[in-house]
């Protein structure tokens, strides 16, 4: 069987939906969209080039985040987000610039270099997953001007990572909101979505200026089917939240990311 035939088989609608659902469920189990897990699958299983995979991942992340925000409104009302507008704006001040810069870097990097950058960032996400996800809300780490500056810097870094991986950045945003601003974990989840959506739109706009953006037009059906699977999986994972203890779940997911990082590095 030729490579083209293999690729066509792997991108079958059933594979796209199933892959999205499994990844969404993994993310939903820890309160995330799962885009960090989706990217290695797009590269390793669905055989997309690095930049194409990032752009497709970004498009799917946009769809998932746009639907997740109203889904969470029953738990965290929009008024709670509005009450914390200053935190959202603080992080956006850095993340919007970071998203533009990160997308610009991604379009200029050689494919081999981008694979390695993605692999390194997957390792970093795995580390944060284990050591940062169970952070407990309490007093803000910093206050006043120091907090403001730290928020902009953190937002900038998160914006770069989100653009380079095509993710929403919740894995980094939630610990930042909990530790730096002392936000409750449920509120942090919704605030992270409020920061992620405009951040991803900026990165998406920057990617639209590159010729690789045509991958979306060529794979519209695949994109929508996998995004639908991700939404269903995220919903199911959210229902199962808490069934698997974090002491088991988080290290297991971190190992998946580390294995994915090795495969992407060797790609």
TrEMBL record:
Keyword Transmembrane helix appears in the UniProt entry: yes
Record-given protein name: Probable membrane transporter protein
Keywords: Cell membrane, Membrane, Transmembrane, Transmembrane helix
Residue ranges of coiled coil: none
Cytoplasm in keyword set: no
Family (UniProt): Belongs to the 4-toluene sulfonate uptake permease (TSUP) (TC 2.A.102) family.
Transmembrane segments: 12-32, 87-107, 113-132, 144-167, 187-209, 221-241, 247-265
Localization terms from the record: Cell membrane; Membrane
Pfam families the record matches: TauE
Major site of localization recorded for this protein: membrane
Species: Shinella granuli
Family matches, as InterPro entries: TM_pro_TauE-like (IPR002781), TSUP/Inactive_protease-like (IPR051598)
Membrane topology classification: Multi-pass membrane protein
């Amino acid at each position: 069987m030729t490579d083209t035939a293999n690729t066509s088989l792997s991108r079958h609608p059933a594979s796209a939906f199933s892959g999205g659902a499994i990844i969404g469920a993994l993310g939903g189990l820890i309160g995330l969209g799962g885009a960090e897990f989706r990217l290695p699958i797009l590269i390793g299983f669905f055989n997309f080039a690095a930049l194409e995979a990032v752009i497709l991942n970004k498009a799917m992340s946009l769809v998932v985040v746009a639907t997740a925000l109203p889904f969470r409104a029953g738990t965290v009302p929009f008024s709670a987000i509005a009450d914390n507008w200053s935190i959202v704006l603080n992080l956006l001040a850095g993340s919007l610039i970071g998203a533009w810069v990160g997308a610009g870097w991604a379009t200029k990097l050689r494919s081999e270099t981008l694979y390695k950058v993605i692999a390194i960032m997957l390792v970093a996400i795995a580390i944060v997953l284990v050591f940062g996800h169970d952070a407990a809300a309490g007093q803000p780490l910093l206050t006043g001007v120091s907090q403001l500056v730290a928020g902009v810097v953190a937002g900038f870094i998160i914006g770069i990572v989100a653009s380079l991986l095509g993710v929403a950045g919740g894995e980094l945003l939630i610990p930042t909101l909990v530790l730096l601003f002392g936000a409750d974990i449920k509120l942090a989840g919704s605030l992270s979505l409020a920061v992620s959506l405009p951040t991803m739109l900026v990165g998406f706009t920057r990617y639209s200026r590159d010729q690789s953006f045509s991958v979306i037009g060529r794979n519209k059906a695949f994109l929508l089917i996998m995004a639908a699977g991700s939404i269903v999986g995220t919903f199911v994972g959210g229902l199962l939240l808490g069934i698997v203890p974090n002491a088991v779940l988080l290290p297991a997911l971190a190992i998946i990311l580390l294995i994915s990082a090795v495969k992407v590095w060797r790609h």
